[in-house]
Protein 1
Amino acid sequence: MFYNKTMALLEIKKYTDKSLKGKASPIGKIDVNIQHLIDDMIETMHAARGIGLAANQVGVLKRLCVIDTSLNEDRKSLIILINPVLVEKEGTVEAEEGCLSIPGYMTTIKRSEKVFVKGSNREGKSLEIEGTGLLARVLQHEIDHLEGLLIIDRISPIKREFFKRRYKKAFKEINSTK
Ligand code: NI
């Protein structure tokens, strides 16, 4: 399938934008607008050197995310995931994590070590992904975004208070300049 449209970079919403706190709605028909959104999100993720991007992060509250753990643009690891559901998880592991919506902030997050996610691809065909390591982490991070959750919602209240004091003002300034 080909989608002929010039791709465009989207603005990545930053903390404290309210779209990051919203719960995304399921996608019904995968129409031409969704196809364009997918293309633009892939372009935006790669341009930002990200490994995952959820629709909430570009201000669209729909259950869609794109993931590419290859960290380059050969797109071999590109996953387009519509209406993802985490159906199984196993083990726990802690690792450093960041988010394109909270630039400059990294923190240790405890996640499941292995996950099994169901959803659909851009053609509407069902997709089943078993992820371990980095992929498992990104899948959980992106599904969190669709629920309106950020990495700072996954840290201890003390760490969150520290984050807010140190970073909230700075991010408000980032937002107000746009
Ligand atoms: Ni993120």
Protein 2
Amino acid sequence: MRMMEKVFEKAKKDLRKIVLPEGEEGRTVQAAAILKAEGLAEIVLLGNPEIIRAEAEQRGVSVEGIELIDPTDSPKAAEYAEELYELRKAKGVTPEDAAALVADPMYYGIMMVKTGDADGLVSGAVHSTGDMLRPALQLIKTKPGRKVVSSSFLMECPNRSLGEDGLMVYADCVVMPCPTAEELAEIAVTSAETARTLCGFEEPRVALLSFSTKGSAKHELVTKVREAAEMAKKLAPELILDGELQLDAALVPEIAASKAPGSPVAGRANVLVFPDLQAGNIGYKMTQRVAGAECFAVLQGLAKPCNDLSRGCSVEDIVNTVVCTAVQAQQA
Ligand code: ACO
């Protein structure tokens, strides 16, 4: 992706330590070696060091200088288990449960981030989205002042007349199946922050999308989006944001002129907020498959950054996601 060059530069200037719980997985080992060699992040690989080294040898890469930790044989495990127990005892977690959980690399990695022993986490080459999201939501929790964890997809479209020279942010396409108006408002504001800090947009212009533009249709779903837009304006009065808007009114200046004259966003949106996860997930995949956009996702709203990969990810995807996580950690 074109935008990654700038993100790589940012990551190199202030190195962050990112933990990869799927440390025994081949693509992950290869990505870790590249990240270390190119000075993009400090890396911790979790897993059995012998398996990790054998994987590295098979791929012809070096894990020299990369921290290898086996969660089942770690001096820190007892401390993490105690902390996890304290955090989750009200939810019925026992000390024995906590000890068993931190032997799982995913929980061990999350506890490293929680306690500040790592700055961020990336997983998903093996595990599902939910496998990582649930412990992150339960233990790392949201940033102060935020209630919702959601995602932004960074979309790079071949049509450079869209967004910022073809680059747009789509939200939420991964996490919240059915956000309330209040949650949608928060997703809109957080996505604008991601657009600014990660994508370098100087002026995020946020469209809250619907099948209606400015009252052209009447339905409770439309009302929800309109209310979310009003709430978002109160949450971030300085933000350039509008809704409800149809996708064409959000992106095409001629259609904006007739459907939403005077809107500060219509015809020039660069952050698209979908009304729910069905629309968002279909929307990003449609843009990827039909329009040939390049894309990848980051989670937003967590107190410390954790990001998910697709199980079909490439080594390059892992490198890019770790670098984005490191840059998010600089701002956490
Ligand atoms: N923001 C903040 N906190 C949250 C959120 C959220 N969005 N969602 C759940 N939580 C908290 C809950 O309050 C709860 O906290 P607590 O245990 O301290 O009380 C904890 O997280 C667990 O909540 P649950 O409701 O038990 O979690 P659930 O089993 O519903 O899982 C999940 C949450 C995984 C995010 C769920 O909403 C989900 O599956 N989302 C869709 C994921 C997905 O499949 N995406 C599409 C595929 S990805 C792709 O295509 C790229």
